[in-house]
């Protein structure tokens, strides 16, 4: 078989030309060549093209696996291990798609440490379509946050900013808060402190009425917290928490006014409030109005602060020691740091007495809530 007969099929494959388009001239022709009807290609040129393709195919790199791709991007062995542990399916993900997403994150300034945090709180993040309306989204968010640095911080705190529905979720929610008088600066603060603000925000007439009844003005530092906490809470939950405090003799207006001054009250569970109110009213014998004036009583830990200090106050009274922890002093003592509390009410006594009081106080603090050790908790993602 001659050289031409060997090369002809490959030439046809390269140039996508059927054999019927070729006319083979006789070997006696001074211009030994293949001539198509519509264009001209020499056998030598086609052989060179064929050789180039063979060389390229021989040096073509094998496709990288996701682990190597992440390492080349900047992750170390520990980072890759943590990412795959949180999202095992990434081991089999398409490397081209993964590479395009890593390029986007690089342009945003996301580091390997940031990526580990992001995947930990949003395991499906790298499986999401973060390129949808990317330029428009980033332009809007950078303008909203005021700088790329603040935007980067917000994305690390809540990577879903790159995946939320831009026109039907992000922009409408921001408009809601702005319409209620929350300034952009305050809204940025709230977005950074409460990453799930955008997907959880809902406002209706009943919630707006609750906000109005708190009596908080738009100029108050508490206003942004009051509005955001009512907005992200389910209306059923708000009703239940208000009704729970009403059981102890408080009026709805008093409760809402309390929330206006201490909005984090809405973050406390009904069980926690019940246990604290029962102890304050039943054991310490304080009135519910004291809680209205001193909401910190509902925040402090019952087992490690309130109970031990009240029991120590009773011990000091039984021993006839001074100073005693009674009345307004009791409330002041509850707010002290542990070191200051011991210095004020224990270290001031003789050594033998102080030693006895410290031992009593430590024993009181070591008593745990019933079945506390059997509680199971699993913290994955953001604790919101």
Automatic annotation (TrEMBL):
Q: Its Gene Ontology biological processes?
A: DNA-templated transcription termination
Its domain of life? Eukaryota
Question: Keywords in UniProt for this one?
Answer: Transcription, Transcription regulation, Transcription termination, Transit peptide
Q: Which family does it belong to?
A: Belongs to the mTERF family.
Q: This protein is called what?
A: Uncharacterized protein
**Protein source organism:** Penstemon smallii
């Amino acid at each position: 078989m001659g050289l031409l007969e060997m090369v002809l099929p490959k030439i046809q494959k390269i140039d996508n030309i059927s054999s019927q388009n070729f006319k083979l001239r006789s070997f006696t022709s001074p211009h030994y060549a293949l001539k198509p009807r519509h264009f001209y290609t020499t056998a030598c040129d086609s052989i060179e093209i064929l050789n180039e393709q063979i060389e390229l195919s021989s040096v073509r790199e094998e496709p990288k696996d996701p682990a190597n791709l992440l390492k080349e991007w900047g992750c170390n062995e520990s980072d890759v291990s943590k990412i795959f542990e949180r999202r095992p399916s990434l081991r089999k993900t398409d490397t081209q798609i993964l590479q395009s997403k890593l390029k986007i994150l690089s342009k945003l300034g996301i580091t390997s440490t940031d990526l580990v945090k992001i995947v930990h709180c949003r395991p499906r993040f790298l499986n999401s379509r973060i390129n949808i309306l990317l330029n428009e989204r980033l332009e809007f968010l950078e303008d909203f946050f005021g700088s790329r640095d603040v935007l980067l911080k917000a994305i690390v705190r809540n990577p879903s900013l790159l995946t939320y529905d831009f026109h039907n979720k992000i922009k409408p929610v921001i408009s809601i808060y702005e319409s209620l008088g929350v300034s952009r600066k305050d809204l940025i603060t709230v977005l950074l402190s409460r990453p799930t603000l955008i997907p959880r925000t809902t406002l209706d007439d009943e919630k707006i009425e609750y906000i109005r009844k708190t009596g908080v003005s738009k100029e108050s530092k508490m206003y942004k917290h009051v509005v955001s906490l009512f907005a992200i809470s389910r209306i059923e939950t708000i009703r239940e928490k208000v009704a729970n405090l009403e059981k102890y003799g408080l009026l709805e207006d008093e409760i809402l006014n309390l929330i206006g001054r201490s909005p984090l009250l809405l973050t406390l569970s009904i069980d926690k409030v019940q246990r604290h109110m029962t102890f304050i009213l039943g054991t310490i014998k304080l009135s519910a109005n004291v809680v209205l004036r001193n909401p910190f009583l509902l925040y402090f830990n019952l087992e490690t602060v309130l109970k031990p200090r009240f029991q120590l106050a009773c011990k000091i009274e039984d021993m006839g020691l001074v100073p005693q922890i009674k009345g307004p002093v009791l409330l002041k003592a509850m707010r002290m740091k542990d070191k200051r509390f011991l210095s004020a009410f224990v270290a001031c006594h003789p050594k033998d007495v102080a030693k006895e009081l410290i031992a009593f106080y430590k024993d009181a603090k070591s008593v745990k809530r019933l079945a506390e050790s059997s509680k199971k908790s699993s913290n994955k993602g953001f604790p919101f």
